[in-house]
Design goal:
chromosome; DNA replication complex GINS protein PSF3; DNA replication; Methane Monooxygenase Hydroxylase, Chain G, domain 1
Length: 212
């Protein structure tokens, strides 16, 4: 029986993949911001009023979905300005640099890496520090995640997985599947070990870039 939906991986870096359910959900995450001009007929969409004809006054504080913030953001026209969510601000960047493994990323934001990469689309003087923290956080947590996925065969890993962001959960599942496939192969229950779909999709993407 064929699957009704074949999972599509999220985009890389600042690019979104609009066929990816993860990216669609991530684009609904809210950004704090401010209306730099009156915004007509957006009050209901942003839960700022009851009537569809109501406009949002200039200077109003907003909670804007990422997809809408990217559409309205224009450095020349100054329609809206956006602020950094607290987890990407300097105080939290200091926590991550001290020990990224202690942070419950899923509680702070289930799409920490993807959402943080999308923030680089907005002009912000802290963008270099944000990008560096995202990379360092991923590097610091990656080894522990993969080590845990390879050394927790048939064990309850719910407490560990609960603290991971969605990208980390996907990596953990890939590690667990790789371990399970190896165990089956070692017991003679599988004819061969195949590359994971994540590796295969990455290879296809690199080939497409070369051909293009």
């Amino acid at each position: 029986m064929s699957e009704a939906y074949f999972p599509v991986g999220p985009g890389l870096g600042m690019e979104e993949n609009f066929l990816s359910l993860d990216d669609i959900l991530m684009s609904q995450e809210k950004l704090p911001g401010r209306a730099e001009t009156a915004l007509p007929r957006l009050a209901v969409l942003l839960a700022q009023g009851a009537g569809s004809a109501e406009s949002i006054p200039e200077g109003s504080k907003l909670e804007i979905p990422l997809w809408l913030a990217k559409g309205l953001h224009d450095s020349k026209r100054r329609i809206i300005s956006v602020e950094l969510p607290k987890i990407y601000k300097e105080a939290w960047r200091t926590v991550f640099s001290a020990d990224a493994n202690v942070v419950d990323l899923h509680k702070m934001g289930p799409y920490y890496y993807g959402f943080g990469s999308q923030l680089l689309n907005f002009e912000n003087p802290e963008n270099p520090e944000i990008a560096q923290t995202i990379l360092q956080t991923f590097t610091a947590r990656f080894r522990r995640i993969m080590d845990s996925s390879q050394n927790a065969y048939n064990e309850d890993t719910s407490a560990l997985v609960a603290r991971l962001d969605e990208l980390e959960r996907a990596l953990f599942q890939v590690g667990q599947k790789g371990l399970n496939d190896f165990q089956c192969w070692e017991k003679g229950q599988a004819s061969q070990i195949t590359a994971s779909s994540l590796v295969q999709n990455y290879g296809k993407r690199k080939l497409a870039e070369v051909d293009g």
